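One record is set out below.
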Amino acid sequence: MIKKADAPFQQIKTLVRQRIAAGDWKIGERIPSELDLAAQFGVARMTVNRALRELTEEGTLKRLSGVGTFVAEDKPQSNLLMIAHIRDEIRARGHQYRCHVISQAREPASFEVAAAFGLPVNTPVFHVVCVHEENGRPIQLEDRYVNPEAVPGFIDQDFQTEPPSEYLYNNVSHHELEIEHVVDATLPTSAQAALLEMRTDEPCLMLTRRTWTNGRPVTFVHFVHPGNRYRLGSRFKPGSARRQT
């Protein structure tokens, strides 16, 4: 039986989360049926149904029609208010990190890139595309442009040893740093889907970032994440948000 407090379905959600946190139900494991849970907790089946439905929408559970309800794989979360290093995030979870460089070149700026930097079209820029992997599974596609005037040595680096964001952090002045973040929900292109090992009809989160230092543009980058493997979020106190580059 559950105690009288919040709405019954909220209590069921809490109890399910507790069972998962305790390791009673592990990632990928099927949990008991709605009828079994209703009997176990002493509530109506519809109460359990609502709790499981909301937990599925929140990403805690995954429901397969005709099969059952399973504990979903936890999604890594990246902070929106700072430029975090994905290698550090992955290693902090005790997982293996790898940066797979797809392309690395100097090229003329397209209209989109030139507009993002405030430079004339065809101005030479550095362009790097790489995939960041966690335990051999791609979780982020990085499509980055860099202003050569701001970071002249960028294109000659070995990004498998030092990923692009870390190199920029270590080699760009933090004085009068300015950062712009925009997040969009989108579908991947066929090329993006292939690199991220996903279907083209699966949703993605795309974080677009621009940075400037001393008023000079430094980088313009798209980060594409499979929506079912990654989340973006922040927790902060007003006035205390940290900024990095």
In short: The chain has a mean pLDDT of 85. The chain has two domains: 8-71, 77-233. The first strand starts at residue 61 and ends at 64. Helices lie at 8-21, 34-41, 45-57, 86-92, 111-117, 164-171, 190-196.
